């Protein structure tokens, strides 16, 4: 294909808190963190897994004039209910990753369990964005 | 055989993986040795034999590579970057950085365009956030006030 996915945006109501979680707890690396004065101090903050060339954009929820106050409030409510983004991660060892991330303070709402396609577990970021951590069984993918 | 705990380097690789994954924490060569199940002295020797450099050098260069990347791609202060790569002393960080890159961290950063110019901020966002905001135009005065 003539394109690749470079980054994917996840809304976060608080970028500093997001940084603490995605880097401090999930162990991702900061790829870019710049605040641009000519864009009204817009902060472009991206993180990604060590050794993988793809980034998650930790995007602040914009206020006026892009989103009015009601939209922001509704979006935050929906995110708190789990209607946010979902990121699907794979790992070679779900149990080991679960233990390491738990020790770093990630709260799993689903512990590792056997599925038809492998072993997986689930957690959320502090804002309700959903993550699944899957150790695929041989032959499963995509 | 049993007296030679590591023949295939697997345990040493575990130490290297730990350095790669946890360099941002105040990790020491002692921690790496423990992860590999070696005594400190023996570990350094074996690590060098397996990977061609000492564990200290490996961990430090891993941290310096990340620090250099953060100098190029973020607007964090040097002190913050020092902490972000797991080093406690800005002085020794600067010394190591100069030894590796030939420039002080601030000079290294200055030798590149500002990070915000490098950042791949999509046009749709530049357009949206770059619009002048909170401006009062003359025609506002012509509208009836609420």
Q: Can you characterise this structure?
A:
Chain A has 142 residues and is α/β, with parallel strands linked by helices. Helices cover 23% and strands 38% of the residues of chain A. Chain A is built from three helices and eight strands; from the N terminus they run E-H-E-E-E-H-E-H-E-E-E. The longest helix of chain A has 12 residues. The two termini of chain A are 16 Å apart. Chain B is an all-alpha fold. Chain B is elongated. The N terminus of chain B is likely disordered. Chains A and B meet through strand 2 of A and helix 1, helix 4, helix 8 and helix 9 of B.
Q: Which structural class do the helices and strands of chain B define?
A: mainly alpha
Along the chain, the helix and strand elements of chain A come as EHEEEHEHEEE
The percent of residues in helical segments of chain A reads 10-25%
Distance between the termini of chain A: 16 Å
- Count of alpha and pi helical runs of chain B: 9
């Amino acid at each position: 294909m003539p394109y690749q996915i470079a980054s994917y945006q996840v809304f976060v109501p608080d970028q500093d808190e997001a940084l603490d979680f995605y880097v401090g707890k999930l162990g991702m690396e900061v790829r870019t963190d710049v605040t641009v004065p000519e864009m009204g101090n817009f902060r472009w903050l991206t993180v990604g897994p060590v050794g993988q060339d793809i980034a998650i954009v930790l995007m602040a929820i914009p206020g006026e004039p892009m989103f009015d106050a009601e939209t922001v409030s509704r979006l935050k409510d929906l995110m708190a209910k789990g209607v946010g983004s979902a990121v699907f991660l794979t790992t070679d060892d779900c149990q080991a990753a679960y233990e390491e991330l738990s020790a770093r303070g990630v709260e799993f709402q689903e512990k590792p369990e056997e599925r038809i396609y492998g072993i997986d577990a689930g957690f959320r970021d502090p804002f309700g964005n959903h993550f699944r951590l899957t150790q695929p069984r041989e032959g499963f993918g995509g | 055989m049993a007296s030679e705990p590591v023949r295939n380097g697997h345990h040493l690789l575990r130490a290297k993986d730990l350095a790669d994954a946890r360099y941002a924490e105040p990790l020491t060569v002692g921690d790496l040795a423990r992860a590999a199940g070696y005594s400190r002295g023996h570990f350094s020797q074996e690590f060098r034999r397996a990977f061609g450099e000492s564990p200290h050098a490996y961990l430090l260069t891993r941290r310096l590579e990340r620090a250099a990347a953060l100098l190029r791609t973020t607007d964090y202060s040097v002190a913050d970057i020092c902490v972000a790569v797991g080093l406690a002393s800005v002085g020794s960080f600067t010394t190591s950085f100069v030894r590796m890159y030939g420039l002080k961290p601030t000079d290294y950063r200055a030798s590149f365009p500002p990070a915000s110019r490098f950042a791949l901020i999509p046009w749709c966002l530049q357009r949206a956030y770059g619009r002048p905001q909170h401006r009062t135009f003359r025609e506002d005065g012509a509208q009836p006030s609420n």
